[in-house]
Write a structure and sequence with these properties.
This protein is mainly beta. It has 1 helix and 6 strands; from the N terminus they run αββββββ. Helices cover 13% and strands 46% of the residues. Strand 3 and strand 4 form a beta hairpin. The relative contact order is 0.33.
Length: 106
């Protein structure tokens, strides 16, 4: 997902989910993961839209999986929510960037 597509898509997605414009300003979340690191992000009331990820990075959530190095995955998911597990499957530092959306609860 490109940043331009995400900025166009997010308002439509939030409307579709019933939030309308009731969400905080989008935030970039840029993570650096050390070699072999697994990081968990609790995003149960939030949405994470994957913008870029180095190869050999795996992202898993209740919405699905994104892992370009796994040839058995037939659909790479760019939208994530709930417990998000990010895994660096290499022996070097890798980068991943999301846009985080937090709905306002009325």
């Amino acid at each position: 997902m490109t940043e331009a597509f995400a900025t166009w898509h997010i308002p439509l997605k939030m409307e579709e989910l019933g939030h309308g414009t009731n969400y905080l300003a989008p935030k970039f979340r840029h993570f650096s993961l050390y070699a072999g690191e697994t990081r968990e992000v609790d995003a149960y009331d939030e949405y994470y839209f994957l913008i870029t990820a180095d190869l050999e990075i795996s992202v898993k959530s209740e919405f699905g999986i994104y892992d370009l190095s796994d040839g058995t995955i037939n659909e790479q998911k760019h939208e994530h929510q709930g417990k998000i597990i990010i895994i660096n499957k290499t022996d070097s530092v890798k980068q991943i960037v999301f846009i985080q959306i937090i709905p306002k609860h009325i």
